[in-house]
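Quick one: sequence plus nicotinamide-adenine-dinucleotide SMILES, need structure tokens.
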Amino acid sequence: MVELRGKNAIVTGAAVGLGNAYAKALAEEGVNVALCDLRDEVHELKEQLEGLGVRAIAWQGDVSDPAHVRTVVDGAKSEFGSIDILINNAGVFGASVPDDDLDKSLGDYERIVGANLKGEYLFGRAVIPIMIDQGVGGEIVNIATDHMFTCGTPYDSCPKHDDCPWGDSPRPTGGGDAMDLYDASKWGLNGFLFGWAKALAPHNIRVNALCMGATDSWMLRSFHGHNPPQKEVDSWMKAEDNARVMIELLKEGSQGRNAQNINFCTGRPVALEAPHEHLYVVPETVRLGGEQ
Ligand SMILES: NC(=O)c1ccc[n+]([C@@H]2O[C@H](COP(=O)([O-])OP(=O)(O)OC[C@H]3O[C@@H](n4cnc5c(N)ncnc54)[C@H](O)[C@@H]3O)[C@@H](O)[C@H]2O)c1
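Reply:
Sure thing.
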């Protein structure tokens, strides 16, 4: 297992929800963390992380804005000296349907695809040259959704766990009824997952994605007017559990899995499943060689 203490990370969308839990879990492992978010609570989180004994730095801004991304990435590099881990987490949900009016929909497109796909793309483009230049490997984790893996399309990739609450009939399609832009943005991440993993394997930089089902967060609570029924809350996964699994993933280091959409099915214990067989890449093309 790889020691994370002393490494340096960027977590996007860290003010609340899953990103907040990821940032805290990294700091508890002794990782210095650069944070960014639209919300000003990101500055409170910086102070909390410093209280855990690591260095932290925070910026308020939009991940779809290239100038903001430059500020965060260059600032993190200059403050910490290196960037070892990128957690591409910032994301938004917004209802959208195919017969939305074009003018209404353009705003949705910019907001949803901007945060969920363009933001991850921009952070990748800004961080990857730095990681390659450092020459010591690295970790990129993109935060996707179960709509692109768990019990969803592609149907054949459902792991069909014995304890799956959906029984023998996994949900045949990913996503919900008003999610075409959200799902398109998350499916788009597969292009970066596989493309980056192949290109970066020779540099010992791993790229994986976490594909969660319903996990307690500001976003999920907002679907219920921030007053969700307790029964609903009890069925959700906890962000802290997901963060613990992310730490386990990072600790695999260069001997670990690469180019994988990692599955978190609602209704099952939140645990790092065994690596699955590759469906979309030739395994040799994403195998890392050396030590980090
Ligand atoms: N919670 C779930 O059930 C769930 C399930 C699947 C995937 N996800 C994904 O997990 C990630 C985190 O979601 P969450 O549930 O914690 O949501 P959340 O709304 O609780 O937190 C998201 C954070 O990202 C920030 N953010 C949003 N757009 C941004 C932008 N353009 N620039 C900078 N910051 C921005 C928000 O301000 C917020 O702090 C998202 O990518 C989401 O799509 C969540």
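The two ends are 11 Å apart (CA to CA). The chain has one domain: 8-286.
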